């Protein structure tokens, strides 16, 4: 039974419940619910549901670790497939067979996806591309529409790590959501019809990041901030090299990185070898309140990623009127407007980055204020939650 738009049932599939920094999903869920849509979150790994997440959460059953527990869990899943939703299970099996999957893979997919096969939805929306892997036929099996979001890493890097990972997905009738025009053109290059691709950028709570008490007062020292997971794709090693260039030119600065990740030790050592460790603070993960405070205490924001779907933190910085220097990676070119809300420079080029930092810092107060005002107004007009919600309502309308 299909529903009117105000009562559409939307199932969003994620690997886990959105963390504190994954505001995109939280904002989306909240916006859809406020417009009367019924949203259920399906996760592979269950954790405690935070108080500010109001939707229903369904977790995939564990198939166990040891041989005996795996065997028991698999038998239970098989019984559910046969007894609870036999028609859907058979349809899923046959669809996988039509895709040329080996018998073993068909059975495995059936057992892994059985918790989804009894759901009654209008849309099954996979929050990342790789989450649709081995689940390409679930939506058709349960009689609903299928959507997939690509957020950057999954579109550009996952196919390098998992060859042909989207071969089956790209053959299906799927509606795609991407964060930027650059990502849209990447899908088109993979022979996806333009009509099936919708660009919906991230959005921020503009009231939380209102410019308020932030001013563009000139500071003698550079107070530079980056909010990023410590991963090689974020290009932080190039940022450190650029800052080493500034230090060699006797430019005083303080650089703070908010975030944590697998590259922390390597980056700390790189800062030490470059002679700038005393000028760099690895702040780790901070609360939203602490992040906001750090943004207001800075006078320049950097996002120098090698690959970036869009970059919420750069939007937050612009919402406060903070000048931004970003790389030309993917969605960052759409996020920051070159010479209007900041500077966009070629990635992997520490010398160009160092020049851009100096150029922005050297702007006179009038030009800085003009850039800040333009950035604030643009974020408020183009990247607010209300606009994002309206676009997702339109996305699910047909």
UniProtKB/TrEMBL annotation:
CDD domains: GT4_PimA-like. Pfam families: Glycos_transf_1 (PF00534). It comes from the Bacteria. Residues 217-375 form the Glycosyl transferase family domain. InterPro entries: Glyco_trans_1. PANTHER family: GLYCOSYLTRANSFERASE (PTHR12526). This is Glycosyltransferase family 4 protein.
């Amino acid at each position: 039974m299909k529903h009117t738009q105000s009562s559409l049932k939307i199932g969003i599939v994620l690997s886990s419940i959105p963390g504190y920094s994954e505001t995109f999903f939280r904002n989306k869920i909240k916006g859809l619910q406020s417009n009367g849509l019924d949203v259920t979150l399906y996760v592979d790994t269950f954790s405690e549901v935070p108080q500010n997440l109001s939707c229903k959460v369904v977790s995939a059953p564990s198939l166990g670790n040891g041989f005996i527990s795996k065997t028991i869990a698999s038998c239970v899943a098989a019984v559910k497939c046969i007894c609870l939703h036999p028609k859907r299970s058979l349809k899923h099996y046959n669809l996988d067979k039509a895709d040329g999957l080996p018998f073993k893979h068909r059975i495995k997919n059936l057992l892994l996806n059985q918790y989804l096969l009894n759901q009654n939805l209008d849309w099954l929306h996979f929050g990342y591309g790789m989450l649709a892997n081995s689940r390409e036929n679930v939506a058709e099996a349960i009689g609903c529409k299928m959507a997939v979001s690509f957020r950057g890493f999954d579109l550009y890097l996952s196919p390098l790590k998992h060859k042909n990972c989207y071969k089956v997905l790209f053959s299906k009738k799927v509606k795609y959501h991407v964060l930027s025009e650059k990502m849209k053109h990447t899908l088109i290059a993979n022979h996806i019809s333009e009509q099936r691709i919708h660009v919906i950028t991230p959005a921020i709570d503009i009231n939380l990041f209102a410019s308020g008490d932030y001013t563009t007062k000139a500071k003698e020292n550079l107070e530079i901030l980056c909010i990023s997971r410590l991963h090689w794709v974020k290009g932080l090693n190039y940022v450190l090299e650029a800052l080493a260039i500034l230090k060699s030119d006797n430019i005083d600065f303080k650089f703070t990185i908010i975030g944590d990740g697998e590259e922390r030790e390597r980056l700390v050592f790189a800062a030490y070898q470059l002679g700038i460790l005393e000028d760099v603070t690895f702040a780790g993960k901070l609360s939203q309140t602490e992040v906001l405070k750090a943004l207001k205490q800075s006078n320049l924001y950097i996002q120098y990623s090698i690959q970036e779907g869009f970059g919420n933190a750069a939007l937050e910085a612009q919402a406060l009127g903070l000048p931004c220097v970003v790389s030309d990676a993917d969605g960052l070119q759409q996020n920051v407007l070159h010479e209007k809300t900041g500077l966009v420079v070629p990635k992997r080029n520490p010398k160009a980055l160092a020049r851009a930092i100096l150029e922005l810092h050297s702007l006179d107060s009038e030009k800085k204020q003009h850039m800040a005002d333009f950035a604030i107004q643009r974020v408020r007009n183009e990247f607010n939650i209300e606009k994002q919600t309206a676009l997702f309502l339109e996305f699910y309308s047909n």
